[in-house]
């Protein structure tokens, strides 16, 4: 297809891309100046009145004369055209303007596939692009240098677009064309993406880059327009290294999986004390804009957003009553901008320095609680939120109340206060039943699902996660979708389905990485590593932990760092690096907080007990197991609690305390009967019972129980469990002289003999018992190579 460009002297103008360049170098101009140039050139055969130009560029005629004059003045300056010489633009007193420069129109052949994408249109020659500044979403909030050339979103304002009907159908008159109802329907169903605003003002207004983005996104949500969360957009921009808006088109399109995109590119400039806020909109192959002026930039932004709603055939939501003053409104957006940019210290300083009348507002109280939450100070978070909820009237600020309940639930969950977490999420769900806030309702369902998962109520957890996934899908909330994928993967892991979990948690990790959500990405990668471990893919597990190591460079949340170290330690044990694993466990034990990090410390002690058992240090295994078997671990993860109890019993066996071990087995069996059903936990209880029968000399009983446990492990299908039980079963079969049966069971482990030392050692034992010393030596050598620092007992092989 063809696309027109204009050349005059050494300038090149691409109306569709709204790009002006000189000698191949892009020229930075406000959007209003570029659009004035386009309109004047395209109507060069006649004069253009001021009112006509204002209507074409600003979308209305009641634009101040100052705004029009400023736009033309900037344009003249960029073209080197003075008011006296008037080489390109002639001023016609009491009439308007006319383009008088010599220009050549050229038709550019554009690839049909590229042109079909309304978000991205190619240009004839590459022009230097000004990217969305990484600093806006990185380490500091900074105003982009105005010396850099900038290319705005690819779009052409062909003619004036006016909304002439708001009740059901939308008609747009553009260049003599009427938008049909089907196209209007696409516009109404599109997912909105609000990009960081470009600000043309002094440095003190830098925060508006993210502040206006978030304000406009919230306006859209209140008008029931599906809108990508601001955090998602910031992540996309950050991940793409501040690429220009045009370069983000493909990323956005993939993010919403082909759904129509309503892309809003905000721009704000200040001149003579007046703010002009312009929203460039692109949807359904159409490009248009709205603009508003005010001495208050946030008021101008809201007015522009309302105009956009009308053009989309939607009724703008009523103005929120929560912002009673301009100062409160501005403070909220400044704090939100700082938090979006992960600048918690800056956000905290904004709260601390706020006047008392503003700091006492509920909105600022919630912001303060959010800062504490993201900093990992959950006790402070709970205090702020409980005070806030007590003072909020039941019918006031419903969205704020639901947000506070959800954040309170998350804070309780982080502190392992499951009853309180579940109660807060349940309150949020009940409250939201009479309010249209799908994103908050989804978050409340995730909260209840997470508690159910921790309590091993897996069907209940899956039901809540499923409801949340549907709500997030409908609103194209990418981070929410990833969060649910991670939760569903965790549920599959709890069911003993690492093969099912792996693609879910891997997809969640990829999505979190794409959105630059660092802590969520690490949590997902920990689940990926654990899935690999259960699948006996030990090197893949360690390679996964390499992606978040060293942890100090990937996460600022100290409490989460301990969990990340524990994941790394498990992967290190899997490849036989016991000393490195031991060093990490010592760090957790010595430096974590006994009160705040009680669960992480208990899990660390549990892993240390297993590690000591591997090294043959019975006393340390008993000491670590005793430290791990605490009520907090029992409440948080009764599977780890059960396997740690089993570690203690094995250590008692090795210490010769058979009677003491027998009492522990009876207690473990009784305890397990009181817990929520869990096939894998029961499997390890049965394995412990078989080991006790074996050590007490009840061979037949031991064989029977091992056989039942092996059959159950095969039904569950977790390779880690199959090998753990199979190794013990084979040992007992060989001791009973049942070589054929031992060989059969060993064969069931053969698939993992090249990657797991226990499976390889079991093969060596069977070969040695069969007198096949050559095969036994090869299998043992392989086992010792895989084992690393783990000691292996040498089976009875005749060495040459």
TrEMBL record:
InterPro entries the record matches: OmpR/PhoB-type_DNA-bd (IPR001867), Sig_transdc_resp-reg_C-effctor (IPR016032), TPR-like_helical_dom_sf (IPR011990), WH-like_DNA-bd_sf (IPR036388)
Q: Where is the OmpR/PhoB-type domain?
A: 3-101
* Transmembrane regions listed in the UniProt entry: 150-172
Fetch the PROSITE patterns from UniProt: OMPR_PHOB
Q: Which residues bind DNA?
A: 3-101
The processes (GO biological process) annotated in the record are: phosphorelay signal transduction system; regulation of DNA-templated transcription
Q: Which UniProt keywords apply?
A: DNA-binding, Membrane, Transmembrane, Transmembrane helix
From the UniProt record, which GO molecular function terms apply?
Answer: DNA binding
**Name of this chain's protein:** Integral membrane protein
- Protein species of origin: Dokdonella koreensis DS-123
Q: Lineage of the source organism?
A: Bacteria, Pseudomonadati, Pseudomonadota, Gammaproteobacteria, Lysobacterales
């Amino acid at each position: 297809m063809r696309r027109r460009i204009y050349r005059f002297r050494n300038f090149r103008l691409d109306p569709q891309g709204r790009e002006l360049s000189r000698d191949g170098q892009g020229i930075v101009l406000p959007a209003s100046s570029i659009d004035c140039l386009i309109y004047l050139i395209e109507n060069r055969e006649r004069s253009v009145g001021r009112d006509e130009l204002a209507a074409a560029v600003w979308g209305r005629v009641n634009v101040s004369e100052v705004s029009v004059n400023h736009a033309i003045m900037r344009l003249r300056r960029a073209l080197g055209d003075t008011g006296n010489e008037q080489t390109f633009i002639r001023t016609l007193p009491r009439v308007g303007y006319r383009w008088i420069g010599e220009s050549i129109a050229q038709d550019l052949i554009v690839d049909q596939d590229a042109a079909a994408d309304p978000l991205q249109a190619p240009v004839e020659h590459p022009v230097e692009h000004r990217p969305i500044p990484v600093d806006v979403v990185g380490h500091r909030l900074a105003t982009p240098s105005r010396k850099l050339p900038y290319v705005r979103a690819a779009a052409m304002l062909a003619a004036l677009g006016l909304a002439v009907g708001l009740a059901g159908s939308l008609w747009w008159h553009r260049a003599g064309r009427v938008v049909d109802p089907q196209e209007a329907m696409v516009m109404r169903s599109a997912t909105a993406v609000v990009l960081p605003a470009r600000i043309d003002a002094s440095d003190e207004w830098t925060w508006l880059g993210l502040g206006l983005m978030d304000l406009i996104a919230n306006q859209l949500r209140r008008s029931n327009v599906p809108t990508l969360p601001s955090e998602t957009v910031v992540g996309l921009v950050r991940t793409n290294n501040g690429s220009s808006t045009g370069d983000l088109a493909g990323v956005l399109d993939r993010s919403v999986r082909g759904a129509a995109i309503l892309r809003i590119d905000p721009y704000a400039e200040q001149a003579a004390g007046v703010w002009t806020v312009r929203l460039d909109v692109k949807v359904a192959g159409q490009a248009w804009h709205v603009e508003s002026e005010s001495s208050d930039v946030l008021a101008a932004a809201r007015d522009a957003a309302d105009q956009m709603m009308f053009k989309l055939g939607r009724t703008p939501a009523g103005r929120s009553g929560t912002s009673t003053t301009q100062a409160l409104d501005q403070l909220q957006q400044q704090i939100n901008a700082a938090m979006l940019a992960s600048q918690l210290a800056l956000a905290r300083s904004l709260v601390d320095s706020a006047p008392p009348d503003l700091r006492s507002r509920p909105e600022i109280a919630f912001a303060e609680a959010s800062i504490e939450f993201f900093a990992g100070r959950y006790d402070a978070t709970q205090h702020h939120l409980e005070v806030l909820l007590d003072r909020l009237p039941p019918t006031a600020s419903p969205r704020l109340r639901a947000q506070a309940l959800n954040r309170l639930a998350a804070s309780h969950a982080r502190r392992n206060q499951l009853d309180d977490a579940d109660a807060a999420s349940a309150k949020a769900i009940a409250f939201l039943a009479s309010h249209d806030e799908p994103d908050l309702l989804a978050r409340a369902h995730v909260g209840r699902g997470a508690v159910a998962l921790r309590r091993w109520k897996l069907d209940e957890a899956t039901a809540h996660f499923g409801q949340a996934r549907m709500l997030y899908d409908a609103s194209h909330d990418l981070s929410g979708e990833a969060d649910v994928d991670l939760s569903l993967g965790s549920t599959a892991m709890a069911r003993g389905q690492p093969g099912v979990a792996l693609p879910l948690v891997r997809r969640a990790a990829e999505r979190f990485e794409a959105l630059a959500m660092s802590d969520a990405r690490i949590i997902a990668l920990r689940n990926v590593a654990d899935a690999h471990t259960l699948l006996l893919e030990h090197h893949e597990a360690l390679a996964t932990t390499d992606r978040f190591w060293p942890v100090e460079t990937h996460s600022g949340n100290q409490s989460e760092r301990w969990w990340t170290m524990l994941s790394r330690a498990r992967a290190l044990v899997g490849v036989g690096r016991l000393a490195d694993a031991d060093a990490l466990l010592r760090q957790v034990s010595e430096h974590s907080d006994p009160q705040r990090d009680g669960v992480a410390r208990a899990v660390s002690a549990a892993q240390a007990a297993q590690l000591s058992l591997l090294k043959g240090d019975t006393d340390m295994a008993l000491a670590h197991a005793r430290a791990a078997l605490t009520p907090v671990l029992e409440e948080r993860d009764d599977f780890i609690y059960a396997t740690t109890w089993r570690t203690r019993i094995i250590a008692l066996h090795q210490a010769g305390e058979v009677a003491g071990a027998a009492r522990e087995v009876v207690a473990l069996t009784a305890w397990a009967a009181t817990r929520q059903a869990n096939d894998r936990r029961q499997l390890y209880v049965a394995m412990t019972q078989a080991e006790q029968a074996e050590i007490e000399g009840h061979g037949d009983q031991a064989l029977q129980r091992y056989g039942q446990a092996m059959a159950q492990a095969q039904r569950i299908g977790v390779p880690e469990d199959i090998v753990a039980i199979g190794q013990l079963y084979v040992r007992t079969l060989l001791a009973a002289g049942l070589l054929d049966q031992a060989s059969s069971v060993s064969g069931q482990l053969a698939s993992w003999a090249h990657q797991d030392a226990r499976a390889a050692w079991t093969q060596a034992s069977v070969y040695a018992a069969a007198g096949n010393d050559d095969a036994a030596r090869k299998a043992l050598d392989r086992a010792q190579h895989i084992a690393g620092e783990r000691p292996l007992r040498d089976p009875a092989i005749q060495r040459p």
